[in-house]
Structure prediction request, 448 residues.
Amino acid sequence: MNLDLSQTEENYLKAIFSLSLVVSKAVSTNSIAQKLETKASSVTDMVKKLSEKKLVDYKKYQGVSLTVEGKEIAVRIIRKHRLWEVFLVKHLDFSWDEVHEVAEQLEHVKSVKLTQQLDAYLEYPTHDPHGDPIPDADGNIAHHTEIMLSSLQIGDTCMVLGVKDSSKSFLKYLDSSGIKLGTDVRVLNKEDFDNSMIIEVGTKELSVSQQISKNLFVKKQQND
Amino acid sequence: MNLDLSQTEENYLKAIFSLSLVVSKAVSTNSIAQKLETKASSVTDMVKKLSEKKLVDYKKYQGVSLTVEGKEIAVRIIRKHRLWEVFLVKHLDFSWDEVHEVAEQLEHVKSVKLTQQLDAYLEYPTHDPHGDPIPDADGNIAHHTEIMLSSLQIGDTCMVLGVKDSSKSFLKYLDSSGIKLGTDVRVLNKEDFDNSMIIEVGTKELSVSQQISKNLFVKKQQND
DNA sequence: ACTAAAATTTAGATTAGTCTAAAAAATATT
DNA sequence: AATATTTTTTAGACTAATCTAAATTTTAGT
Prediction:
C-alpha cells in the first residue's frame, strides 16, 4: 500500500482530486495541464505512470479519475496541507493569503506521526483558515453545507464561513475590508442592475460586487 | 544572491559543511560520497555544478571547500533543521531519536518568514534536542565549550549538555538509561583497564563504557 | 455525414541526478 | 625511484520529469 510517491506525483493526484469535485465525469488532460501550469503532453506521460501504479483509471482520450487508493492519497495530502495552514495562521502569525505557498511545501513531508501529532497539537481543527474542511485521519471530509452570500435577501444576517476563490488578491481584499472567518454580515441592500450588495460589516457599510458575493460561503443567521 | 537550490544541492552543501568541521583542509570526494551514501562519481558531478554556482571551491583531485556564500546557505539549512527539531520535541512529543529524519525533510522548506516565525515561536532556542547549537538569523554559531564525560575524574559532578554521536541506537540507549539533556551525573569510579566508568544518574548507578563517555558533552559542576 | 477545430497522444529531445566501468592522478610501499 | 594501491575523474548509460512539434482522435458545426 505504501509506495513512495514523488512530490510531482502527489501534486498530480491532488490536482485530479480537486478537479473531480467540479466535474462529475473523468477529468480532462487539458484541465490538469492548466491547473498544474504544465503541458498536456507532460500530463499524458504522468497519467500513464499513475495508471500503472493503479492510482488513477485512464483510457486514452477518455480522461482520468482517481482509484480508491489514489483518492486516499490525495485526501491525505489535502489533510496535511490544511493542517499546516492552521498551524501557520494560529501559531506563526501568517495571514491567510500567505499560507498557501508554504503549505504547498509542507504537505509533502512524509511522517505519519508528524501529521497525527500536529493534528492533536492544533486540537483537531475541522476547517482551515479559508474555511475549507480538513479531512479526518480516516479521510472523511465534512462537505460544505454553506450557501453563497449572493443568495441572501435584504435584511438577512449571516456569518462568513469560507471562501470559494482563495486567490491572493481576493484574500487581501477581504482583509482590508475587515472580513474574516466568523465575521457577521447583514445585507442592507441589493442593486438589481449589477447584482451588487450593500452589506454591513461591524459598524461599516460596504458595497460588494457579485463577483465577491458569489465567492463567499456564509451561514444564514436566524433573524428572529 | 538568491539562486534556488534543489534539495539535493542543499544536502551536498550541508554535508560539505559538516565534514569541514572535522578536517581542516579541503573535503575529499570520497568522504562526501560516504556521508551522502552515494558514489564518488556522482559527487564529482555535483561538485562541479556547485563550483559553477560559486558555492564551493574545487580543483580537480584537490577536494572541495565551501565559499562564503556556500557556507551561508549551509548554515541556514542547519539552522532550519535544528529549529524544527526543537519544535518536534517541544510541541509534538517526538523523542530525540525520532526527530532527525523528519527534520531532514522540513529543513528544505523555503520561506524566510517561516523560519523567522518558528524561531520566535520557540522563543529563540540556542540548542537543539541533541545539544547542538542553533545558528542565529545572521549565521553565527555558538561553539561547543563543553568537555567530554570521559575526561572527568572520580568524584566530579556534571550536567549533560549534548551528544557527539547522535545515532538512533545511541540516543535510544541514553533514553533507556534516563540520561537526557540537563541530567546531572556524578562519576563514582573509573576502571583503568577498559576506561569504563561507574556513574550516578538520579538515584541509579550505571556502568558506562568509554565508547559512551567519549560521546557525551558535559559541563563540569563546582563541587564545593 | 463530412469537415474543421480542438483536444490528446506520440516521438524525440533535454535537464537533473544517478550509476558502472574504465582511465587518470595522487599517495603509499618497498 | 619504481611500482602498487587508492582516490578521483571521465565516459557513457539510465530514470524522472519536462518540453516542442507532429500525428491522431474526438468533438463541434454545418
Summary: Chain B has a mean pLDDT of 91. The longest strand of chain B covers residues 157-163. Residues 28-30, 40-41, 43-45, 60-61 of chain B lie near DNA strand D (CB under 10 Å from a C1'). Residues 147-221 of chain B form a domain with the SH3 type barrels. fold (CATH 2.30.30.90).
